[in-house]
Amino acid sequence: MELTTLWFFIVGAMLIGYFVLDGFDFGVGMSLPFLGRDDRDRRLIINTIGPVWDLNETWLIVAGASLFAAFPEWYATMFSGFYLALLVILVALILRGVSFEYRHQGKGREWTRWFDQFIFWGSVVPPLLWGVAFANLAQGLPIAPMENGGWIYQGTLLTLLNPYGLLGGLTMLLITFAHGLVFISLKTAGDMRVRARSLATKVGAAAIIAGATFLGWTIMQHTDSPTLWVIVLCSAVAALALIGGWAANLVGREGWAFTGNAIAIAFALLAIFMAMFPNLMASSIDPSYSMSIVGAASSQKTLELMTWVAVFTLPLVLAYQAWTYWIFRKRLTREAIPVGAH
User: Fold this and answer.
1) Where mainly found (predicted)?
2) Where residue 256 sits, what CATH number does that domain have?
3) Vertex 19, ends 316 and 295: CA angle to 5°?
4) Segment 191-202, tens digit of pLDDT
5) Residue 341 falls inside a structural domain
6) Who contacts 249 (Cβ-Cβ below 8 Å, separation ≥6)?
7) What's the predicted TM-score (pTM) here?
């Protein structure tokens, strides 16, 4: 396998890792107004991801840095074209992160309420807009080559808000919401566990409908793609995993439900990456304008150096993250949270 293709899949794997891990963080944040009957409940919900949310978010930074180094033309075109959407995502992530750290400062009920709102909206906006962005990458975008090299995005933010893109955003939103609810039921005991599992059943059913529609639409758009059979296979695995996760949650097997949702997210994103392949950005203006993997890649020397760095560092990062999850594997209870604490 050529290094350009290898790094396409490495960047894709990092992004998949981000959405699987930070995906349940988003879902936990979305659950606050639905499961948090009082401040004690809300603190219990937040504590389920307290030790890991910032570690999960670093995968986005690693993926962005790898994308910049391996495919600078892709990075430049995508970030300039999606500038406003990415700015909104960044602001939402900052507000969410700040809120986790500051809501417990004990400045009063109104202070806490505002930061809870920031956590909720900071968890809703990113998966919605990420879903819109990736759906548009799979569908194709109005890009064209520039005279002095590179590509330029010729659309606007409204160009991204097409029916297929919005369905992609809704699908990502629902799947991450269900993913987070299952994680809460996996990490808590008592009444919170029961209520989270019940809500996960309802949200999961909606996610199955949206996901099946989105993946079916994706397949129909790429019937002439050389990777069609891979897209179909990945979509089928994602659908079966999502249904299996929903069924496991229904009978109280939270571990299997969480695994099913994680597999569903991973293979749904893999289907999108295969819909893009062998391009990074397909042009909806003229297929000849599309940005190929080879045409947007860095030099061979750069990719070789990055490969050696990845070989030595990624196993260490994965081992550390696995160790962190093992240390904080214990279930949490409402009774363990002091009433007067913040």
Assistant:
1) membrane
2) 1.20.1630.10
3) 85
4) 999 999 999 999
5) no
6) 182, 185, 197, 200, 201, 204, 257
7) 0.92
